[in-house]
Structure formats: structure tokens, C-alpha cells
Amino acid sequence: MPKAPSTASSIDVSFLGTGDAFASGGRLQSGYLLTANNYRVLMEAGPTVLPALKRSRIPPEDIDLILISHLHGDHFGGLPFLILNYLWENPPSKPITIAGPKHLEERTWRLFRTMFPNSGADAERVRRQLRFVVLEPGDNRRLGRIRVAAIRTPHMRREASLALKLTFDGKTIVFSGDSGWTEDLVAFAAGADLFMCECTYFESSHLDFHMNYPELQRQRSRFDVGRMILTHVGREVLGHQHELNIETASDGMTLQV
Ligand SMILES: [Zn+2]
Ligand SMILES: [Zn+2]
């Protein structure tokens, strides 16, 4: 059945960082800003997220919701810099919700104290403005003005790593997080207006904790999505850039959904 036209206003998507953990090709690490009706969602906060936000002239204090897919440094290691910025430059203009897997709150503050050991008492000012929420695989809940669903991806051994589905009014964006190939993503992404899928490898197709391009190309027609864009791009994929038949993100790219 054809999809009914959406009544939602559009979502602006800014690709702040589209590189892998190694910043391959000089790409910044993970970060995406999604804005609809003045509501700003930062999805992923890699170590380079603060310069990326400032370069794009997005005030970090105006973010409403931060979503983190898993606790690898290239996805949440930028949170201490955001906190530092909230502490000494611009405090949040309203409370900010930060949602992600179990232990996100504790690890973020541990990392912050390690990086800026003398900010302890002052950091309390910011702590009161941040509301951490645990996202579990299987969750489907409202966070602020959007609905967020999560499934577990095959990526981390012991802890949960998540793929995320964000629904703003009638529009849906699905993000794979970091993930090996899994059939679950086909069903999870079905019907999405935009599917942002990690693609770290090309030749190393034996590695099962990240996606590789040949597999995604084989599976592409099974993804019933409006638009599919590869991100979290690694060195091998960059080396085959001219052979890619699936749209690939770059730092600074913006689009509307
Ligand atoms: Zn990663
Ligand atoms: Zn990872």
C-alpha cells in the first residue's frame, strides 16, 4: 500500500561527524544533529562533537535531547567537552535529557572527572541541568517531543549497543549505531524515511561486529526505506569510494527529511 503523505514538518539533518573511531580520511567522529520545529536532537557525541557543533554554528546549549547508541569512546567521548562548555561558557538554556545504554551516566561523569579533575564542585551546577535516561534494547518510549525505539545490535560483547528509531510526528529516522550484519535491522528500518547505516569496512568482510559494503550492497534492496545513507565510514570504504552505489555521508552534509 502506498504510504500516506506525512503531515509532519520536515526534519533537518546535519552530519557533524561521519568517520569511524580512527577518524579515517580526517573525518570527524560520530555526531548528527536532527532538528524539527526548533527541537534539537544530538545523536551521538564523539570526541570531536563540540568543534563540529561550533563550526556549524549550532549552540550546544540549545540542544534538547542527546541520544547515545553505545559506550565506545567515538560515540560518547565528547560528552565531557559539552559539559565543560555548559560549565564555563554557556549553561544549557533548559534541562537536557541524555539517553543511552546502562552505565552512560556513571561513565560520563567518571570520564569528565578524569579529564577535568578540579571541576568537581562546580560541575554540580551542570549536573542539575542534565537528566540521564537508560535506554534498554526493546524500549519504545517518548523522550521530550519524539518517540525513540531501540534494538540491540551485534557489536559489543558484554554491554548493549543499540540501533535507534526516532519518530518526529509522522517522520521516521533509523540509525544502525555500530553493528555487524543482522536481519533485525531489515524489519526495524522498514518504512523509515531515512536509514543511516554504519559502513566501516570493505575488504574485511570477515569481521562480524561492523558492517561491510559488499554485504550492504547485497542486502540493499531488502531495506524498504525512503533514503539510505552510509556513515561511520572507515579507511577501506574510502579507498573504494568510486565503486559505491549507495549514497555516502560526508562531514558537514545537510539534508531534509
Ligand atoms: Zn564507532
Ligand atoms: Zn562501537
Q: Stretches where pLDDT falls below 50 for ≥5 residues?
A: 1-6
CATH topology: Metallo-beta-lactamase, Chain A
What is the overall shape? Answer: globular
CATH architecture: 4-Layer Sandwich
Write down the CATH class: Alpha Beta
Q: What Rg do the Cα atoms give?
A: 18 Å
Discrete helix count = 8
Summing up helix and strand content along with how strands pair, one would put the structural category as alpha/beta
Q: What is the element string, with H for helices and E for strands?
A: EEEHEHHEHHEEEEEHEHEHE
Bound molecules: zinc ion
Task: Find the count of extended strands (DSSP E, 2+ residues).
Answer: 13
* Domain tally: 1
Biggest sheet strand order reads 6-5-4-3-2-1-13
Average the pLDDT over all residues and give the rounded result: 95
Fourth-tier CATH superfamily name: Ribonuclease Z/Hydroxyacylglutathione hydrolase-like
Q: How far from one another are the termini?
A: 21 Å
Largest sheet: 7 strands, mixed
What portion of the residues fall into strands of 2 or more residues?
Answer: 25-35%
Instruction: Kindly state the percentage of residues in helix.
Output: 10-25%
Describe the protein's architecture and organization.
By secondary structure, the chain is of the alpha/beta class. It has one domain (12-256): Ribonuclease Z/Hydroxyacylglutathione hydrolase-like (Metallo-beta-lactamase, Chain A, 4-Layer Sandwich), CATH 3.60.15. Helix content is 23%, strand content 25%. It has helices at residues 49-55, 73-76, 79-88, 104-115, 120-127, 184-189, 213-219, 235-239; strands at residues 12-17, 31-36, 39-43, 65-67, 96-100, 130-134, 140-143, 146-152, 162-168, 171-175, 194-198, 228-231, 254-256. The strands form 2 sheets. The protein has a 7-stranded mixed beta sheet. A 6-stranded mixed beta sheet has the order 7-8-9-10-11-12. A hairpin with a 2-residue loop joins strand 7 and strand 8. Helix 3 packs across helix 5 (120-127). The longest helix is centred in the middle third of the chain and has 12 residues, at 104-115. The radius of gyration is 18 Å and the shape is globular. One zinc ion is lined by residues 70, 72, 155, 178. Residues 20-21, 72, 74-75, 178, 232 line the site of one zinc ion.
